[in-house]
Amino acid sequence: MDEERDLVVFEDDAGNELTMEVLDYLCYEGKEYALLTEYVEDDDEGEIEVMIMEVVPVGDDQEEFVPIDDDLAEKIMAVFESDEFDDVYEDDEDEE
C-alpha cells in the first residue's frame, strides 16, 4: 500500500538540496510546528533523527519552515511523545 508522503525540500547556503518528510504537525501555544525527518525511500533504516520547525504561513496556500531554539524544541518534543498527544491524534484519525 502506497501512502502519500508530505515532503519538503530545503536548500542550504551552498545550493545543496535536502528532502525532509513531515511526520506530523502540532499546535503549541498558538503556533503550528512540524516534526520532520530526512526522507529515505527505504523505511527499514531503524532509528531516525527528527527535528522540529515552526510552520509560518506566507501568502496564499504557502508556508515556510523556520528553525526553533533547543529549549522550545524539547518542550514540543515532550508533547509529541506524551500520551495526551496520542489521544488527540487517534481522535483526529477516527473522524476521517
Which labels suit this protein?
alpha+beta, single chain, 40% strand, five-stranded antiparallel β-sheet, disordered C terminus
The multimeric state of the shown protein is single chain
Count of DSSP E strands? 5
> How much of the residues is beta strand, in percent?
35-45%
In whole angstroms, how far apart are the ends?
A: 18 Å
Portion of residues in helices?
Answer: 25-40%
Can you tell me about this structure?
This protein has 96 residues and is α+β, with helices and mostly antiparallel strands. It has one domain. The chain contains two helices and five strands, in the order E-E-E-E-E-H-H. It has helices at residues 70-81, 83-95, and strands at residues 7-11, 17-28, 31-38, 50-57, 63-67. The protein has a five-stranded antiparallel sheet. It is globular, with a radius of gyration of 14 Å. The relative contact order is 0.14.
Please sum up the structure shown.
The protein is an alpha+beta fold. The protein contains two helices and five strands; from the N terminus they run E-E-E-E-E-H-H. It has a five-stranded antiparallel beta sheet.
Write the layout of secondary structure elements.
Layout: E1 7-11, E2 17-28, E3 31-38, E4 50-57, E5 63-67, H1 70-81, H2 83-95
Antiparallel strand pairs: 1-2, 2-3, 3-4, 4-5
